[in-house]
Amino acid sequence: MSPDASPKTPPAEAAGTGSVLPGLGLCLAITAVAVAAQALEEHVFSHPYVEALVLAILIGIAVRSAWAPPARFRVGIAFSAKQLLEVAVVLLGASLSLGAILASGPALLAGIVATVVLGIGASVLICRGLGLPMRMAILVACGNAICGNSAIAAVAPVIGAEARDVAAAIAFTAVLGVLMVLGLPLFVPLVGLSDNQYGVLAGLTVYAVPQVLAATVPVGLLATQVGTLVKLVRVLMLGPVVVAFSLIAPRLPPEGAARAAGHRPGLAKLVPWFIIGFLVLATGRSLGLVPDPAVKPLTQLAGFLTVLSMAALGLGVDVRVLARVGGRVTLAVTGSLAVLVAVSLALIRALGIA
């Protein structure tokens, strides 16, 4: 496997000929079920505990475990896992704005950046110490430090991650993310945090914006407002991180098929096309060239395509592989979260946040 910009999926081996429609249709069906399940969660609980992105991977894995899609499905599955995911990364650029970053203030902004950088570095070290491959370590680290599933999905094609690594990172990170939402409010009495301090802690540690709301609403309105702001700024770190890893990817140690390939990527692969598209769209958004009414539909389309891609990745995963790495991934995610919480609490004290 050369360290190019595409996630490596088992179905891709048959992607040379045939129509994309059967495989794409299968992925769309799984996506529809996942989206409907999330909508049901929102109706019953007011917010989703397990997002459609995670459900799509789990359903895809379940389908793959019960039934191996025949060759005519593989072209569409590979197309959904690769090209559609790359398009989703491009569209994510529409959600980024330089003004939103600057509005948080220089001290807190610097603190958020430092927390993300330290979180990624510590997580990679923990994962490698537990024997996880480098690309899996990067996926877990980015998921923990930035925004969970979305970060994993965005970074995966940049570093050429295996489908099984993406699925494992998302599946186990999602479980720990839910436990984080349920357990984080305990820090208010245990550590003696104010609503403002707790909002910063939640924004720096909880994965998704809806999960931040779930973790902060029981504490108070101020905690919710602060947590949402910090979380949104933290999400904006995804852009610089994705670009950084696109430059680092060619230097990563080869894994799997890449070990046998043994050749260097060309200059054009150092910064994949979809990263350039991402930067162009983000710049356009910051300069006001992307109109506000277009931002929401573009972001929603990016989210839908990401869920569709995760369904395709799930269809390419052997559940036995997940079982083999499950314990180590769980330990890695737990250890990484513990470090992230410790760094966040230290930041709150260092900045004198009251």
Q: Strand-residue fraction?
A: under 5%
Would you identify the regions where 5 or more consecutive residues have pLDDT less than 50? 1-17, 257-270
**Major beta-sheet overview:** none
What's the helix count? Answer: 18
Shape: globular
Mean pLDDT: 81
How many domains, in number, for the residues? 1
Order of helices and strands: HHHHHHHHHHHHHHHHHH
Question: What's the helix and strand layout?
Answer:
Elements: H1 21-45, H2 52-66, H3 71-81, H4 83-92, H5 98-102, H6 106-129, H7 134-147, H8 149-159, H9 163-183, H10 187-191, H11 195-205, H12 209-216, H13 221-235, H14 238-248, H15 257-261, H16 273-286, H17 292-315, H18 319-350
Helix pairs in contact: 1-2, 1-3, 1-17, 2-17, 3-17, 4-16, 4-17, 6-7, 6-18, 7-8, 7-9, 7-18, 8-9, 8-14, 9-12, 9-18, 11-12, 11-13, 11-18, 12-13
